[in-house]
Specification:
heterodimer, A: 115 residues, mainly beta, 11 strands, globular, B: 115 residues, 6-stranded mixed sheet, 4-stranded antiparallel sheet, 53% strand
């Protein structure tokens, strides 16, 4: 069974450009999470969805960040305009069963570098 | 609020040495506790978990015991291998109003094992 699939694996862009990161969760999972990982701040939860609906976006750093989940098999995280401080590895994760004890399945991440 | 504190790394060991990575937590209620592992260039994956006090989680030779009296969940392995070199994250799962057991991660501890 395929795991969580993220694309692109690496993205290098210039400040001010729009960046779109994509995620395909594991089939049947009804929760989807976007995390950001940096050396300074570790793993931060940006936003999560349940059944395609955003539930908690309190971790989204600012209005330049937006996330959508148009259907159960696809989600995007968009940064517009991008800034050098957005450079990080962005992980998508999915899970199922609201009463599970928190096991998440992570993708391999998208490494973003903003010059 | 709820939080997880891990020992700072890197931890550098020789092959077959004994490993301990300390983890303590602060939480209201009764969280579930986890260790996740991140191998180079990959996403996080669940290593082991414990859902109640005195439970011992184990996997791949790693163990951790949920100690409520000391609010700890230290990771141990009797004999590490080079292939265990990775970053290890302690995490707790706490129920919150969004209806999901939200995962809170520690900062991670890098382990390097040399032949």
């Amino acid at each position: 069974d395929a795991g969580v699939i993220q694309s692109p694996r690496h993205e290098v862009t210039e400040m001010g450009q729009e960046v779109t990161l994509r995620c395909k969760p594991i089939s049947g999972h009804d929760y989807l999470f976007w995390y950001r990982q940096t050396m300074m701040r570790g793993l931060e939860l940006l936003i999560y969805f349940n059944n395609n609906v955003p539930i908690d976006d309190s971790g989204m750093p600012e209005d330049r960040f937006s996330a959508k989940m148009p259907n159960a098999s696809f989600s995007t995280l968009k940064i517009q305009p991008s800034e050098p401080r957005d450079s990080a590895v962005y992980f998508c994760a999915s899970s199922f069963n609201r009463v599970n004890t928190g096991e998440l399945f992570f993708g391999e991440g998208s490494r973003l570098t903003v010059l | 609020g709820d939080s997880v504190t891990q020992m700072e790394g890197p931890v550098t060991l020789s092959e077959e040495a004994f490993l301990t990575i300390n983890c303590t937590y602060t939480a209201t209620g009764y969280p579930s506790l986890f260790w996740y592992v991140q191998y180079p260039g990959e996403g996080l994956q669940l290593l082991l978990k414990a859902t109640k006090a005195d439970d011992k989680g184990s996997n791949k030779g790693f163990e951790a015991t949920y100690r409520k009296e000391t609010t700890s969940f230290h990771l141990e392995k009797g004999s590490v291998q080079v292939s265990d070199s990775a970053v290890y994250f302690c995490a707790l799962s706490t129920f919150f109003s969004g209806g999901y057991n939200k995962l809170i991660f520690g900062a991670g501890t890098r382990l390097a094992v040399h032949p």
